[in-house]
Predict the 3D structure of the following.
Amino acid sequence: MPELPEVETIRRQLAKEIVGSRLRRVTVRFGKRLQPSADKFVAAVTGATVRGVRRRAKLLLLDLSNGQSIATHLKMTGKYLLVPGKTAPGKHAHVVFDLADGRRLFFEDVRKFGYLKVLPTAEADSLIVGGQLYGPEPLEKSFTPAVLAACLMRRPGRTLKPLLMDQACVAGVGNIYADESLWRARIRPGRRVKTLSADEIRRLHDGIVASMRRSVKLGGTSADDYVNLYGRKGRNQLVLEAYGRGGRPCSRCGGPIKRVRMGGRGTHFCPKCQK
Ligand SMILES: [Zn+2]
């Protein structure tokens, strides 16, 4: 499932490629995940020009020239793919955007959990600024150890890994970056928040930021079926320390990485050097 670094990679590529492009024609081949409805979606976006591409947590926002924005959540397997004109859509291409310059943008989704929602840009702004759905952005300066500590301490009884994944204290962390951040911080995923020291929270903060930054630099993690706007894999899966490495040696201490189930998710940690 795409997390912050994967969505940020796609955002940067979309910003580079389609800002200034007009959506000449929009063809819906599977419309159940378009909001408020397929017809309204097509009517609201056809003919508009893309003015900017933003990201909030794992949500992509395409701001259009007509005061509307397209909010996209990729969920499990959603992807945007930019292809040359006349490329035939595959069976999982649910929406085809024909750009005025001839290129095509596909929205594909094998599992069909992703969605595209058209809404006034003013509402998209409040989604961004209000921060009601999501905690702070980990790659912004406002995300400090103190901000993280304050949010964690309001939830003393929570288990650390599921809390990191629920977006309240930091946006964009899913299963991969929760495991990676905790490995870097040398903290076990099952710890209760109230047992954390100030130093551990600082390490956790640094682990979140560092694991996200490195992945963005490497174009995201293609551990499952994630590919970027050009259909190519990222490279962060080549340097993972914990996620997906059950039974293999920890690069820090040499002990085997352990895989357990936690909250229904595969969870990876080093029992020797994560305390
Ligand atoms: Zn270790």
Remarks:
- The chain has a mean pLDDT of 95.
- Residues 250, 252-253, 255, 270, 272-273 surround zinc ion (CB under 6 Å).
- Residues 198-217 form the longest helix (20 residues).
- The two ends are 27 Å apart (CA to CA).
